[in-house]
Amino acid sequence: MKKTRIVVVGAGAVGSTTAYTLMLRNRVDELVLIDANHKKAVGDALDMNHGMPFLGGGDLWAGSYEDCKDADIIVITAGAAQREGESRVDLLKRNAVIIDSIVEEVLKYNTTGILLIASNPVDIMSYITWKKSGWPVERIIGSGTLLDSARFRYLIGEKLKIDPRSVHGHIVGEHGDSELPLWSLANIAGAELSLSDADKDEIFTNTRDAAYQIISAKGATYYAIALALDRICTAILRDEGAVLNVSTLLHDYHGVSDVFLGVPCVVDRQGVRGIIDIKISDFERELLHRSADKLRNLIASIGV
Predict the structure, then answer these.
(1) Considering only CA atoms, which of 258, 263, 238, 230 is closest in space to residue 75?
(2) Environment class of residue 6 by beta-carbon count within 10 Å: exposed (0-12), middle (13-18) or buried (19+)?
(3) Cβ distance 17 to 77 under 8 Å?
(4) Residue 214 φ then ψ, to 5°
(5) Nearest-CA neighbor of 271 among 103, 104, 108, 142?
């Protein structure tokens, strides 16, 4: 049987933590780290391999783009950090160039895998990847609002003293400041949440601003996004048909088209097999349109 392989492009905090998470959970037969700083990738691979006697199984190494050949999933986490005084549009332009060059290299060796994008701003980077690759849209997946939805569920559970795995709630739209909570669908076992408006405002604010809080405290976020990426990879490799809030290209989704946004999607071995047509309120639809318009304007500003 063909060995399963995941390639992680970018050995920064997110990429190395994602690789470590995939290794700990024994997700694939082969795991490859690629980074522009090859020495860093070699160090990460060596460090993780020293733990293999405690885990068993699997091959892990620092490689090159040639190792993308036959990979089931290529996870792209690479990207530039914002410079002091740099505008968001200028940062977008720099990251667009980085993503463009990575995708160009991947395409030399792989035309059948799934590209999983985590580089920020993830929705725009996913759109650029789709445009550059020319691949069927179902095989381009952004991490979207999967992590945001997990934060949302955690905070609701914390407030109500309920296991977050029993909380059903969605954050949709941009993975960023214009994301929105679907309070109209949030529930526990089908029951409405017993939360005041003040509670809801607090929970959503802490959900939306979680990354800022973490970055302020320790410089970067990486543990939870690594778990989110592992969850997406697992849904793909196991052909689960799991419903996950990932970023995909929308076509007349509540009137929104031609933009990647995080919405509930069915994820399996094909990638995004379909989008769940959820019912949302008029106010939520308006916020979704605002989020889409914001991203379209940013995409236009960098000439994609």
Answers:
(1) 230
(2) buried
(3) no
(4) -70, -45
(5) 142
Bridge-based pairing of strands 5-9 and 30-34 is parallel
Angstrom distances, CA of residue 269 to CA of 12, 226, 238, 266: 27, 20, 7, 10
pLDDT tens digits, 231-280? 999 999 999 999 999 999 999 999 999 999 999 999 999 999 999 999 99
Cα radius of gyration rounded to whole Å, the chain: 19
Report the amino acid identity of residue 248: T
pTM score of the predicted model: 0.95
Tokens read off for 165: 């795995």
pLDDT in tens, 98-152: 999 999 999 999 999 999 999 989 999 999 999 999 999 999 999 999 999 999 9
Give the position of tokens 């970023």: 247
Catalytic residue list: 175
The label of the residue with tokens 């789709």 reads 130
- For residue 236, give both structure tokens: 């793909």
Q: Give first-to-last CA distance, the chain, whole Å.
A: 41
